[in-house]
Amino acid sequence: MDSGNSPSTPILRKTALNALHKRLGAKMVNFGGWDMPVEYPCSGNLLCEHRAVRSGVGMFDVSHMGDIRIHSAKNPGGALAAVQHLTMNDASRLAIGQAQYSAMLYPAGTFVDDVIVHRLGEDDYLLVINAGTREKDINWVRENTKGMDCQVEDLSDAYTQLAIQGPRAAETLQKLTGAKLDTVKNYWFTHGAVCGLPNTLIARTGYTGEDGFEIYIPSDTATSERVWNAVMDAGKEFGIVACGLGARNTLRLEAKMALYGHEISDTINVWEVGLDRYCHLEKGNFIGRDALVKLKAEGLKRALVGLEMVDRGIARDTYPCVDENGKEIGLVTSGSPSPTLGKNIALAYLPPSMTALGTPIYVEIRSQRCKAQVVATPFYKRAKKPLAVSQ
Amino acid sequence: MSYPTQFRYSKDHEWIEVKGDVATVGITDYAQSELGDVVFVEMPAVGTQVVTGKSFGSVESVKAVSDIYAPASGEVVEANGGLKDKPEAINTDPHGTGWLIKMKLANPAEVAALMDAAAYETYIAEKKKEASA
Fold it and tell me: Which of A257, A369, B42, B85 has its CA 20 to 30 A from that of A202?
């Protein structure tokens, strides 16, 4: 057994709920420099956590995510101009109260990070960024908005961010807030009192492929624990469990949501990962646009595909993909058993000629060649329910 | 879960139980709890020579794959076929039905050098303390 502990233990950052996770008996791991729960034996571990989110409700502490606010300085429109310059999606399409998936790019058209852009006010935006890229991202935003008419604030340490996810998430959270959650559409947000905390940002977003909310509350331990416990109580009748990064990963993988450092990175461009619909070349110039125009004309050299293992074996990130002659043709970026499908699934970069559905390929799993085939993605898609109320 | 006193334990968290010249090998309760839900086990064929400290197979949970290292040298005489359809036996009964292989020991004296149950429990208590520090 390889215990996996590194010889020198770095000093890890902790969220406000760190002590609570340990009291619950969570198994903790180093994730991007953060001491985070990977699974909770008290929840029945990863598989139970995963199933709770698909069928009921689960809660994740995602306070390690960072938050950057960009708002007007002297003249209105300065913040929008900055966000448009920094990100690939078209932030001018956002209404106040709406959010969009987007990304910050290097001039080469590769990824600084993927982000969710929330339009908080007339010329006021909140970018939610990844944990492992926080410092890089804030520096990138500051450097690339120098001289622009906007203010940049790093609010990363100000919030405890809780993700309440699953088909019963709305019913759970509704017990704790006066905000009318059924009027908040997917990728929209509202502000309302949660557990008596006024003006709390409540976003219908998540990283599980399921319905759910992310709430942003003050990051002191007392408040964070109070809200955590209130959500657990509210969700009790729906079988709520605490969920760790293990289930977060299997859930997002089934939904084919990209993970920084795996499907996206500073060496992978927008077209390769297939995030075309979040990239708006026509909106005007932004960092990375020129390269993307050129790359589009040149055509793809590799593309992200979904794989399903045919042979026994689990493909995992960094495992090579090979053809029937053993020639290396690509690389697995994420792979896992899919608890929902009961199959072993993976995401991989392959040459465009090998991306047709049903194409047989092989993954080298610990020096054994295991057969896989290209399948449609996302691997899992939730059934769409019509909204009771639409805006 | 208690650690059977008739077993010996390796620092890599395998257990070994010797009966005559045949030993049964598995992973410990501590190891399975660190791994999480086991979904796949890769084991050597009967007749394979395993070598002390070298990997002879792997156990995969949803989130990771871990090598299994031989606590002693010898020849594999049986692999636990029941794990193919029920790998979760490693989680639910790691010291019993979740056993991995039976082997004919090359040098039975090797086993005496491994930890006994009390020493192993002290060893994992230290590991747990490190993890919660």
Answer: A257
The per-residue pLDDT of chain A, averaged, comes to: 95
Q: Per the structure block, which two tokens stand in for A360?
A: 């047989």
The two tokens of residue A196 are: 């008596």
pTM here is 0.92
Q: Which fold has domain A18-62+158-254?
A: Gyrase A; domain 2 (3.30.1360)
Q: Are A127 and A134 in contact (CB under 8 A)?
A: no
Cα A15 to its chain centre, rounded Å, is 18
Is the domain defined by B8-132 classed in CATH 1.10.1240.10?
no
| CATH number corresponding to A300-380 | 2.40.30.110
Q: Is residue A253 over pLDDT 80?
A: yes
Say what the pLDDT of residue A384 is: 75
Which chain A residue's Cα is nearest to B13? Answer: A1
Which residues of chain B neighbour A250 with C-beta distances below 8 Å?
A: 62
How many degrees, rounded to 5, is the angle at CA A127 between CA A122 and CA A129?
A: 175
Q: Identify the three-state secondary structure at position A225.
A: helix
Q: What is the ipTM of this complex?
A: 0.83
A-chain residues near B42 (CB < 8 A): 366
